[in-house]
Input
Amino acid sequence: MAKRCERCSRPFVTKADIVFRFTTAPPLALYVHLPWCVRKCPYCDFNSHALRGELPATAYVDALLADVLREIKHTHGREISSVFLGGGTPSLFPPAALARLFEGLQRYLWISTDCEITLEANPGSVDRGRFEEFRSTGVNRLSIGVQSFQADSLRRLGRIHGPQAAIAAVETAHAAGFDNFNIDLMYGLPNQSLPAAVADISQAIALAPSHISHYQLTLEPNTVFAARPPALPEDDAIYAMQFGCQTQLANAGYLHYEVSAYARQDRRCRHNLNYWTFGDYLGIGAGAHGKVTDFDKGNIIRYEKLARPMAYMRKAALGEAVADSRHLSAQDVVLEFMMNALRLPEGVPRKLCTTRTGLHWSQFEAAVDDARKRGWLDITADDYVRPTAVGLRFLNDLLGCFLPPD
Output
């Protein structure tokens, strides 16, 4: 019998105790990282780099296609259900370069016929002709990094566009024929007021996107804002912004389907849902991360690629772009599954906890019971594991229930 933690009575589990048993393969997506920006934003902790000189688009696409050849072994014949081009500012890349990338991906991977293909774009770096060309390459969804429609907020965030450029970018997406696109907004900004936060949401709704992402600004390590913190609103003011904006979005018919995501009917982001439900994804590009299941050997592997773009391009050509790779333990998997799934207000079917992880429900049970006793988690009548309203508000406390025992 496994030893138990004296504090919480949860069992200690060693790697030797665990065999991951999969009855089916998880769905598979592809993330492509394009790391260059016009300028690095002071809050950004992504692997992005200010562009100095000419964009090496041809060489970088060559590296991506060399990199994806290494990834074929992880596919096990599965089709790619979604592709996400993130950055950086992927819209800096010429449409012709992306067309060549997609042609190569079609040669090497099984891309589903209804694949969701998202491109991140920043206002000020696109025009209607460019959006139309992106659409002709196969991109069928955009994510436009607006962040705010207030000039003072954009200036404090170090953005290179103004409010009119943000509005024009969204209108350009409509005109180019995109009926599926996201607007990225943030709240809890330096010196932001509740009326200003709600005004941002009202403006976004007026532009009729199919999806709105609404994130709280956080000060991340190794950023300019972490080194020189701006004056942010108090926690109660930030919660008032969140609640006020959620009310606006609900009244406008946007479904709150993830902590920071709101969508029209049938327009939830498939790629991000794959993350949140512990699907697999390949990662190519400088600093890209991947998570893959070897269901024959019973392993779940996480890896990341070299972060510096020039080093990545050199090594990808040699098949040596992986910077780090590790097999997840059972405790890793329980925590990572819940960190993603519990971001969904509707939760996930309890069966998914076992089919996506290869673990028995007993690996989750003690922590789930603990969270239920605290009022942070429910198991619904239709057998969904779902955060309560309190659990969703205090998500970090809820996730603490799934940390490995001392």
